[in-house]
Q: What sequence folds into this?
């Protein structure tokens, strides 16, 4: 384990920084508890001469906790349920997934 990976383990274990969530696979009956950083940045989209600001919900999750997230999987954080949309992206060190979410219907 690298020093960076060990630091990530400590950061994700800190209750002030990460929260516990439940991941549920869209294709199998598998589910597991994971730790995530929840982010809600505004996204600016341009359309013609207009610019639109929209809310987003994203989470960062360790690859060690969730090796293969897929579009359509469900992530439950507290009482809120979200569906993974788009393709999850890993960081440069290949230790963390950034996952774009939308409210589950």
A:
């Amino acid at each position: 384990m690298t020093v960076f990976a060990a630091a990530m383990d400590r950061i994700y274990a800190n209750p002030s920084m990460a929260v516990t969530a439940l991941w549920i696979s869209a294709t199998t009956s598998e589910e597991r508890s994971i730790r995530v950083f929840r982010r809600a940045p505004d996204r600016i989209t341009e359309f013609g001469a207009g610019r639109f600001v929209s809310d987003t919900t994203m989470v960062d999750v360790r690859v060690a906790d969730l090796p293969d997230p897929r579009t359509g999987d469900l992530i439950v954080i507290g009482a809120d349920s979200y569906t993974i949309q788009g393709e999850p992206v890993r960081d440069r060190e290949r230790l963390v997934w950034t996952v774009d979410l939308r409210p589950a219907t």
